[in-house]
Amino acid sequence: MTRSPDKTSPKAALAVAALTTFMAPFMISAVNIALPAIQAEFAVDAVVLGWLANSYLLATGVALVPAGKIADIYGRRKIFITGILVFTAATTATAVMPSIAWIILLRILQGMGAAMTMTTGIAIISAVFPPSERGKAIGITVSSVYIGLSAGPFAGGLLTGAFGWRAIFLINAPIGAAALLLAVLKIREEWADAAGDRFDVAGSLFYGVALVCLMYGLSILPAPLGLGLLGGGALAMGLFIRHELRTAFPVFEVQLFRQNRTFTYSSLAALINYAATFAVAFLMSLYLQYIKGMSPEAAGTVLICQPGVMALFSPAAGRLSDRIEPAVIASAGMALTAAGLAALAFLSADTDILYIIVSLVILGLGFALFSSPNMNAIMGSVEKRHYGVASGTVATMRLVGQMLSMTLATLAFSFFIGSAQIAPPVYPRFLEAVTLCFAAFSVMCAGGIYFSLARGTLHGRPR
Fold first, then answer.
1. 167, CA 20 to 30 Å: which among 107, 222, 332, 404?
2. Contact status, residue 191 vs residue 127, Cβ threshold 8 Å
3. Which residues are CB-contacts of 180 (< 8 A; sequence separation ≥ 6)?
4. Residue 72: helix, strand or coil by DSSP?
5. What single-letter DSSP state applies at residue 71?
6. How far apart are the first and last CA of the chain?
7. What would the pLDDT profile of 393-423 be if each residue is shown by its tens digit?
8. pLDDT at 463 over 50
9. Residue-wise pLDDT tens digits, 58-67
10. Can you list the positions of beta strands (E) in 379-456?
11. Is there a contact between 214 and 400 (Cβ–Cβ < 8 Å)?
12. Pick from 451, 39, 447: which is nearest to 282 by CA?
C-alpha cells in the first residue's frame, strides 16, 4: 500500500464520504417526485419514465466492479475524486438538455460517476477506521444516504413546484463543488493495496455485457427479444465466471463467494433487500400524486418519513453491530421490512394517509436495522487488499437489486397498462400493478431472512 507522508484524519474522511454518499440518493429521490412533471413536458409513457431510473442504475452497476478494482490498483483517492467530478458535471448538464434521450444519456454518465465514489468511499472508511469502530463509521455513512433520500422528495417537490424539474439538477452543482473541494483538501493519503496487479479488461467486458443483456432483457419481457437477451446475458455471465476463475488478476474475486460464507450470504441478503425496497419511492410517488391527487410538495412530505427513520436509526444500528452479531440485527431488520411491504400491498384509492405513513415508518426502521450491520459484516469478513473489490461487490448487489426492483415495477406497468400514459382511465389498472409489486416485494424479503440468519458469525474471529 502506498501512502503520502500526511495521514488522513478518520473524521475528515468520514465527513467527505458522508457528503458524497448524500448526493446520489438525494438526486434519485428528488427525480422520483419530478417524474409526473417530466412526463408532462416530454409526453412519454410509464415505461420510458422507468428508464430514467434504470439507465442510471444500469450504468452504475456495470461500472462498480471495474471501478473498485481500478481503485485497488491505481489508488482509491484518484478514483474517488474523479467520480465526484463526473457525477457533478453530468448532473448539472442534465438541467439544460432538450430531449428525453439526452437526459437518459447523461443519467448513464451520472451513474458511472456515482459508481466511482460508491466503491471507493466505503473502502476508504474501512481503511482509516479500526475494526472496533468500523460499524459506527459505516452507520454514519449509511445514514447520510438516507438523509439524501429524506431531503430529496421534499426538496424535489419544492423545487419542481416553484421553478420546474430542471432546478433539481441545477441544485447539485454547488453540492458537488463543495464535495470535490473537501475531497481534494482533506483526503491526503492514497490507497493502492493491489498495486502491481493487471486490470482485467476481458472480465470487465464479459461482466458489462452480461449485466446489460440481463437487465434490458428483463425490462422488455415477454417480447422475443427479451428472452433472447436473457439467454445471451446468462451465457456472458457464465463466460465471465469461467474467465475470472482462470485469470491471475480477476476484476471480481469469485473465490470470495466460494470460500467466505459470511461474505456470500451477506451479499445475497443485500441483493434481496434492495430488490424488494428500491422501487417503493418510485411507486409511492406516482400513487400519491395520481391516485391520491397530492401535489409534488405534499407527496414529498409524506415520503420523507421512510428515509427519515432510516437516517435516524442507521448510526445506532451500525454501533450495535460492533458489539452484537450483525446477523441478528440485520435479520430483525429484514423481518420488519417484509412487514412494512406487506402493509403497502393493501393500498387502495381510499387508504388513509396515516396508514401509509405508519407503513413507511415500519419499512424505514427495518431497512435501517438491516443495512449498516450487513455492510459491517461484509467489510469485516475480507482482507484489506480486497476492500475495494468487496465494497464494489456489495454496491453491485445493491444496484443489481435496485435494477431488479425497478424492472419488476416496469414489467407490472407493461402488463397492466401497456404503453398508455398514466391517466384517470387506467388508474384502476395502475393501482393493481402497484399493489402486486408490494406483495411480491414482501414475499422476497421474507425469503431473504434465511440468508441473513445463515451467514455465520463475525465477532470472535480474526478480521
1. 404
2. yes
3. 81, 84, 85, 88
4. helix
5. H
6. 18
7. 777 777 778 778 887 888 888 788 876 777 7
8. no
9. 888 788 888 8
10. none
11. no
12. 39
Task: Give the pLDDT score at 2.
Answer: 45
Q: Which three cell numbers stand for residue 407?
A: 424492472
Q: Which three cell numbers stand for residue 150?
A: 429524506
Q: What's the CA gap between 296 and 304, in Å, rounded?
A: 12
Separation between Cα atoms, residue 156 and residue 150, nearest integer Å? 10
Q: Three-state secondary structure along 269-299? A: HHHHHHHHHCHHHHHHHHHHHHHCCCCHHHH
pLDDT given at position 385: 67
Cell of 70: 481500478
| Nearest partner of 164 among 300, 296, 28, judged by Cα | 296
Encoded amino acid at 117, one letter: T
Residue whose cell numbers read 503520502? 4
The residue type of 163 is F
Query: 165 in helix, strand or coil?
Result: coil
Task: Tell me, rounded to whole angstroms, the distance of Cα 310 from its chain centroid.
Answer: 14
How many residues does this entry show for the chain? Answer: 463
Residue 16: CB atoms within 10 Å: 28
Place of cell 409489486: 437
Question: Contact at 8 Å (CB) between 1 and 193?
Answer: yes
Residue tagged 437477451 (cell numbers): 229
Amino acid identity at 182: L
Q: Which residues contact residue 95 at a Cβ distance below 8 angstroms, ignoring those fewer than 6 apart?
A: 166, 167, 169, 170
Asked if residue 25 has a cis previous peptide bond (ω within 30° of 0), the answer is: no
Q: For residue 320, give every residue at least 6 positions away whose Cβ sits within 8 Å of its Cβ, in sequence order, or none.
A: 135, 329, 373
Question: Residue 214 corresponds to which cell in the numbers above?
Answer: 440481463
